[in-house]
Design brief:
2 domains; alpha/beta; two-stranded antiparallel sheet; Rossmann fold
C-alpha cells in the first residue's frame, strides 16, 4: 500500500482530516487565549488541548500551526490561511519541514495501524528537534492523540518537555487527559475546548460536507455531545432513527416490548454488526444519562426524539431512580468493553444491557 493510501489514525471516518479543515467554529475562546499569550510574548512551549473527541482540538492545533509557521508576529485574530499560501500547501501535503506530526504509525507487517504510539516515534521526534530549523525560525509539533502514547513513549516525551528546544511549540491533543502522566500535564499549559452548541456544530458539519436532516439540529447537538466527529458518525449511521427506536422501546417501561427488543438486538447480530452496535450503545448510554439528569431534576432542554420528555419522566420520576440509571450506564459501558475483549456477539451484549434496565423498575415508587 502506498504511503498516501494508508489510513490516518487521527482522521474520523466520513470527515476530512483536521489539517484540511480551514475554519474553526465554536472555539473562539480557546483560540483567543492562545493568541493573547502570543501577543504578550508569553507563548508556552507546550499546550495541552483537552475536551471531548471531535470538538475541534486537532482542528485548532492545525490552525495555530499554520499561523505560527506563516507569521513571525501574532495576528490580531485567528483567520484561515489562504489555501494557496506556501505554508498552507505544504502542511496540507504533510511536507512542511518545520512541522512534526506524532501519531500512531502503520504496522507494515500486520497491515494495520498500531494500537499505541511506540517509543520509536518519539525518538524520531527527538531527532527532528535535534536538527537546526531550516530557516532558524520556529518549529511546531502536533501529537494526536497524546492519550495513545505507551509508557515508554510517554517517558521519552516527558524528557523533551523538561528541556524544550528553543523556538518549538508543541500541541498535545488529549481526549482523556487523566490518562496522561501527571508530570506531562504539569509541563503543559492546558487549553480546554467545550462541546459545540447547536449553531456552531451545524456550521462545522457544513464545512466538513455533512448535511443535518431538516429540523434535527438540536437533536444532533444533544446526541453527539457537541462533537463534530460524533455528529458525523451519528448522521451517517442513521443514529437519529436508532435513538427514536430506543425511546419507543423504553416508552413501555418497566415492561419492554419483546418484539421491538428482539428486532433491535437482531439488527446488531454477528460480528458484522459491530459498528452499528457501537453507535447503538453510545445512544443507549446517552439515553440513560438523560434519564439520570431528569431524575435529578435537570431534564434536557430539548427533545432528541418524539415524546422523549414524557418517556424520560416515566423512566426517572425521582432522584433514586435517576441514580439507578447513572449506575446502569457505568455498568453497561464496562460490560461492553469486556464483551468486545472476549468477542461476545453484540446482540447478546445489547440484550443483556436492555433487560437489566427492567430491574430499575424496582427502585421506582411508580
Amino acid at each position: 500500500m502506498a504511503e498516501d493510501e494508508l489510513p490516518e489514525p487521527d482522521r474520523r471516518d466520513g470527515l476530512p482530516h483536521p489539517r484540511h479543515t480551514r475554519r474553526l467554529y465554536g472555539q473562539e475562546g480557546a483560540a483567543r487565549t492562545f493568541l493573547e499569550a502570543w501577543q504578550a510574548e508569553r507563548l508556552h512551549h507546550a499546550w495541552l488541548l483537552t475536551g471531548a473527541e471531535g470538538v475541534g482540538k486537532a482542528t485548532l492545533a492545525w490552525q495555530l500551526a499554520r499561523q505560527l509557521l506563516a507569521h513571525d508576529s501574532p495576528p490580531a485574530e485567528l483567520a484561515p490561511l489562504p489555501p494557496e499560501h506556501p505554508v498552507a500547501r505544504r502542511i496540507a501535503a504533510l511536507s512542511e519541514p518545520r512541522l512534526f506530526l506524532l501519531r500512531r504509525p502503520w504496522d507494515s507487517e500486520r497491515k494495520r495501524l498500531r494500537a499505541e504510539i511506540p517509543v520509536d516515534e518519539v525518538r524520531r521526534l527527538r531527532d527532528f528537534l535535534a536538527l537546526s530549523a531550516t530557516d532558524g525560525g520556529r518549529r511546531v509539533v502536533i501529537i494526536d492523540a497524546a492519550d495513545e502514547l505507551n509508557r515508554n513513549a510517554a517517558n521519552a516525551l516527558l524528557k523533551l518537555l523538561e528541556e524544550p528546544p528553543k523556538g518549538t511549540v508543541m500541541f498535545l491533543v488529549s481526549h482523556q487527559p487523566a490518562r496522561l502522566l501527571p508530570t506531562i500535564r504539569s509541563r503543559c499549559r492546558t487549553l480546554p475546548l467545550r462541546p459545540l452548541p447547536a449553531g456552531a456544530l451545524a456550521q462545522a458539519l457544513q464545512e466538513a460536507g455533512v448535511t443535518i436532516p431538516d429540523g434535527a439540529a438540536d437533536a444532533v447537538a444533544a446526541l453527539s455531545g457537541g462533537s463534530v466527529g460524533a455528529a458525523g458518525s451519528l448522521i451517517a449511521g442513521g443514529g437519529l432513527d436508532l435513538y427514536r427506536d430506543l425511546v419507543a422501546l423504553l416508552s413501555g417501561w418497566p415492561q419492554l416490548d419483546r418484539g421491538r427488543l428482539s428486532a433491535l438486538c437482531a439488527s446488531v447480530a454477528g460480528m458484522q454488526g459491530g459498528e452499528r452496535f457501537d453507535l447503538l450503545l453510545a445512544l443507549l448510554l446517552t439515553l440513560m444519562h438523560r434519564a439520570a439528569l431528569t431524575g435529578a431534576g435537570r431534564p434536557p432542554a430539548a427533545e432528541a426524539a418524539p415524546d422523549e420528555a414524557a418517556v424520560l419522566a416515566r423512566l426517572a420520576p425521582d432522584p433514586a431512580t435517576g441514580r439507578a440509571w447513572a449506575a446502569l450506564a457505568a455498568r453497561s459501558a464496562a460490560r461492553a468493553r469486556h464483551g468486545r475483549s472476549v468477542n461476545l456477539d453484540p446482540a447478546l451484549l445489547l440484550l443483556d444491557i436492555l433487560l437489566e434496565s427492567e430491574t430499575i423498575a424496582a427502585t421506582s415508587p411508580a
